[in-house]
Each structure stands twice: as C-alpha cells, then as structure tokens.
Design brief:
about 400 residues, 5-stranded mixed sheet, 3-stranded antiparallel sheet, about 10% strand, globular, Cytochrome P450, metal-binding, oxidoreductase, oxidoreductase activity, acting on paired donors, with incorporation or reduction of molecular oxygen, Cyt_P450_B
C-alpha cells in the first residue's frame, strides 16, 4: 500500500490502516499534518519504545549544540512546558507535584461525585427523540469532573471544551495557535486570581507548592493545568462514546455491565478501542534501529498504542472484544515514566458512566448507522463528532 492510499485509509478507518501497517510495514514513515514521522505498530516495539530513553519528548534533545542554536523555537509556551513535551529532570520534578492528585486512592474517593454528575446528566436527557450522546453526556461528565478537580468556574467550561477539541484534532496551524493562546491567557488569569483567592482545588495546590520552594514558574503551572484540562476530559469523552458504540454492536458484552464484571469489561474495552490511537511524538536522540528499520537521529517517532494493543503476537484473537480476556500489559495508557497520569480517573469515569447509561436506558439504540456519522480528523483519537441515539427506559 503506497503512502497516499495508507493515509486515506487511516483517516477513514485508522484501525484497519494500523492493522495493515502492523502486518506488512510495522515501522513505516508516514506524513501526518504535523509532518513526517516513523509510525511503529507492533506491541513489542511500541512497549520498548515507550520506555526507551533514546526517544526523547523534547525535540531539542535530539539536536547537536550547533543545530539547537539554529533550530526554530518549536512549540510555543506554555505547550513547550507540558509534561508531554519534557524529559527528566524537569519531567520528574513536575510529575511528582501532580501525581498525588491522581493516586488510585484519591481517584476512588471521587466515585460518589462522579456518580452524582452522571445521574444529574442522565436525568436531563429527553427520551424518544434523537439526542447527541457526545454533547449531552460523554463530554460534560469528564469535563465537570476535571474542572472541579482543578478549580475552573462552571461558567467557563464550555470554552474549555472548544479549546481542547481544537488542540487535539488536526486543525489548521493558525487555529491551533489561537486556541492555545486563548486557553493559556484564561489560565494565566485564573492563576493570578487563585494567588489572591485560593480554594482547595488542584490549581491552588500547585500555586502553594510554587510558593513553598518547589520552584514552579507561572508558565509551568499554566502548562500543567492546560494539559490536565485537555487530557482529563478528551480521553474519557472519546472512550465513553466509543464504548457505548461498541456495546450497542455487541449485546453479549453489554450483559457484562454488572457490578462484579463491569471493571473487567472496561479494561478489555480500553485495550480494544484504546482512548488514544497513538502516543505523543518522540524524537530519536541517536541513530537507532526498530524492528530492523534504521531511525536516524532527530527523526520523529510515533508509537501506536492502539495498534500495539490489537497485536495478535501479544493478545490472541486480538481483533475480537473478549470480556474474559487477560488484559494485563496493555498499553492504552502508555508505559514507563510518561504513562498517563489520569489512567485511574479515566477508568473510574467509564466504570460509572457506561453502566449508568445502560441501567437508566436499557433500550438505548443508535439513531443513525456508522456510515452516516462524521468522525473527527485526528492523529490521536477516532471518534464521531456527534453520536445521535434514541433513549428508551
């Protein structure tokens, strides 16, 4: 399959394209709208790459001193200060400060609040007529949770949903820059407000840490908040939407949405429809080899977690959704020092949101076939922009 055909298939059906790459060209150069990159698709290569220190997150680490002096600035601040763009020691320092907010125990304590939000949203949904599950449920639930966790006022949350969608999707560069600047400006103002009037949310906690000797700059605080807001609701919204779509197509799996089996089903769904198709970019700091293919120093590398988790070399009959499968070792949330901070939160939100929806509306059905849905154009996620359903008790 030539590059043009591969990319056309990728935008239409990324799992089919990734399957083709995994079986025929497991390490191949492709061109996304962000530029050329080496796409890695087999489980063993992806998992090794996720923990390989030779694949840096900051592209400047792959440059010589002379090249660095002449290189363009790269991502604008504060995006260049996000955890997804940093390597140790800065990554280690910043991650340590926020990890305490996302421990399994701390996230478990959020369950009653997540359940209350789900109940409230479901109570507002009309029955017997098409309703967009994305706009009315899949986005609002995790958005409200992460905004409460960070400390974003309720009136501003609709703007956040728009900004983060632009930053995740394949949008024209001017639109990306504008959305990034708007989100950064808002958060800078919120940081200034919380310095004067702190609350008990995470943003105030980061400000307190910066004033207590942790040496956090305002740009670093804004970058941390930006990343958490984007990743904290986008990942869950996509996963909730695609989980509902998958279960509507598989009544037998849907029967496993019971208290004692729902967690196992959610874990298999994480493997099968990975919330993020690909990990964020890495850059080779030296010439290296992946599956027999030479990757030159400075090259961009995309590790496809979505392809890896459907690799039959690691998971037998991997293309089948199997609620009884042993999913240990899946890389839906990455692996190594950059493993997703919010993994426990995504699990919790899905474990609450998906069963609650089907419990309240057991006769839920799609209002349109898949071929009539419009899917987001994104390297990282594959999900419909809207998912109309008919809700019936």
């Amino acid at each position: 399959m030539n590059d043009t055909d591969f990319m056309e298939l990728y935008w239409q059906d990324p799992h089919r394209a990734l399957e083709y790459a995994r079986e025929h060209t497991p390490v191949r150069e492709v061109t996304f709208e962000t530029g050329p990159t080496w796409l890695v698709t087999r489980y063993a290569d992806v998992r090794a790459g996720l923990a390989d220190p030779r694949l840096a997150k900051d592209y400047r680490a792959a440059l010589s001193e002379e090249e660095r002096a002449l290189a363009p600035p790269g991502l604008p601040a504060p995006m260049s200060h996000m955890l997804t763009s940093l390597d140790p020691p800065d990554h280690t320092r910043l991650r340590r400060l926020v990890t305490q907010a996302f421990t399994v125990r701390r996230v478990a304590e959020l369950r009653p609040r997540v359940e209350a939000i789900a109940k409230s949203l479901l109570a507002e949904l009309p029955t017997g007529e098409p309703v967009d599950l994305v706009a009315r449920y899949a986005i609002p639930l995790p958005m409200e949770v992460i905004c409460e966790l960070i400390g974003v006022p309720e009136l501003d949350r609709e703007d956040f949903a728009h900004w983060s969608t632009v930053l995740i999707d394949e949008c024209p560069e001017p639109e990306l820059i504008r959305a990034s600047a708007q989100l950064a400006d808002y958060l800078s103002g919120l940081v200034a407000l919380r310095r004067k009037d702190p609350d008990d949310a995470l943003l105030s906690g980061l400000i307190e840490a910066s004033e207590g000797g942790e040496h956090l700059s305002d740009i670093e605080i804004v970058a941390m908040a930006m990343l958490l807001l984007m990743a904290g609701h986008e990942t869950s919204a996509v996963f909730i939407t695609n989980s509902v779509r998958a279960l509507l197509a598989d009544p037998a799996a849907r029967e496993r949405l019971k208290p004692d089996t729902a967690a196992n089903l959610i874990e298999e769904l994480l493997r099968w429809i990975s919330p993020a198709l690909n990990a964020s970019l890495r850059f080779a700091t030296e010439d290296l080899e992946i599956n027999g293919v030479r990757i030159p120093r400075g090259a961009s590398v995309t590790l496809s977690t979505g392809a890896a988790d459907r690799d039959p070399r690691r998971f037998p009959d991997a293309s089948t959704l199997d609620p009884d499968r042993d999913t240990a070792g899946h890389v839906a949330f990455g692996h190594g020092i950059h493993r997703c901070l919010g993994a426990a939160l995504v699990r919790l939100e899905a474990e609450v949101a998906v069963p609650a929806l089907f419990d309240r509306f057991p006769n839920l059905r799609a209002a349109a076939p898949d071929e009539e849905l419009t899917f987001r154009r994104s390297v990282h996620v594959h999900a419909p922009r809207a998912f109309p359903v008919i809700l019936q008790p």
